[in-house]
Write a structure and sequence with these properties.
By secondary structure, this protein is α/β, with parallel strands linked by helices. The longest helix is centred in the C-terminal third of the chain and has 16 residues. It is globular.
Length: about 325
């Protein structure tokens, strides 16, 4: 039975950057909004893990700011308040068995306290404006009627990877039919390797890796965050991750061997940690910025030109604006 008490008009499920951006646009547009997430903390794939008494980014590698994007206003505010810092525009291109090359690209930004601190900042701003942002809130089923736990919402926003959104919908939901399946999403393992002191060149920021069956990207987390800690975060290939999703720790040794070979490191790390991302990033993108069908909407980094933090924010922001237009 539906609740007779006044209810929020929009329920946002997911407190990653797309969900928080959507909630901000909804609130600023005059809607009543509630944000819930099953996780203990906000951030989603803007994930930061505290290891050896320091935060380490184990989710998104960095973010860029597309020219002319409204996301730039938010980033400018973060820069002014010291929440983000320009990291680098230059990465190595490492190919197994070949000399390394140095390649420049767009400016990459990072966060001194870890990228999750940016989601925390967005959530705290919403809470300060009276928007509920609730963690440890488990919602398993989202019917097309818009009624969840006895409360009717005008719209329910699923701010999460498509396969996770599809699991929450009714089996015959027309929304689910428009979402990418699990096979269209790439997994990865994020493996943290820490040494007592730096074992690689001082001007190394990170590297895209080619021709490896194990490693796809390496980030110097101390360089990225600005504290100089001798910590590397390695993102594996999708194929390697699939073989170790059940037990991520079983992939650590192969990652150590590959990284040591690529960077010429002889010593083994003093501490390690592995985290799995079953749906790290979409293998292809939706052409629209979001999906809105009846009472159900979906947003995230799969909705836009390419998977990125800025895409996720723009998707949520565009959906929030559309719902209050």
């Amino acid at each position: 039975m539906d609740s007779t008490a006044p209810s929020p008009s929009v329920l946002v499920i997911g407190s990653g950057i797309s969900g928080l951006a959507c909630a901000r646009a909804l609130h600023d547009g005059g809607a009543t909004v509630r944000v819930v997430d099953r996780g203990r903390v906000v951030g989603g794939r803007l994930a930061t893990k505290r290891l050896d008494d320091r935060p380490v980014d184990i989710g998104a590698r960095y973010f860029t700011v597309p020219e002319g994007a409204e996301f730039s206003d938010l980033v400018a505010d973060w820069l002014d308040r010291g929440l983000v810092r320009p990291w680098t525009d230059t990465f190595e291109s490492l190919t197994v068995g070949a000399p390394s090359e140095r390649k420049s690209g767009p400016a990459r930004y990072a966060a001194p306290k870890g990228l999750r601190s940016l989601a925390t900042d967005l959530a705290e701003s919403l809470r300060a404006d009276g928007v509920p942002v609730e963690q440890n809130s488990e919602i398993e089923d989202v019917p097309g009627s818009g009624v969840v736990a006895g409360i009717r919402y005008d719209t329910i926003v699923l701010a999460m990877p498509d396969p996770q959104a599809a699991r929450m919908l009714e089996p015959a939901s027309p929304v689910a039919e428009e979402l990418f399946g699990a096979e269209q999403w790439q997994p990865t393992l994020s493996v943290v390797l820490a040494w007592p002191e730096r074992r690689w060149p001082a001007d190394f920021h990170g590297a895209f890796v080619n021709g490896s069956l194990v490693v796809a990207f390496i980030a110097d987390d101390g360089d990225r965050r600005g504290d100089g800690a001798p910590v590397l975060v390695v993102h594996t290939t999708a194929e390697f991750a699939r073989a170790h999703l059940e037990h991520p720790e079983t992939g650590i040794e192969a990652v150590i061997d590959e990284v040591n070979g690529l960077l010429g490191i002889r010593e083994r790390p003093s501490s390690t940690y592995a985290h799995r991302w079953t749906f790290s990033n979409p293998a292809e993108q939706h052409s629209e910025p979001f999906l809105l069908r009846g009472h159900i909407a979906v947003c995230g980094d799969a909705w836009g030109a390419h998977s990125a933090v800025s895409t996720a924010w723009a998707s949520g922001d565009a959906l929030g604006r559309a719902l209050t237009a």
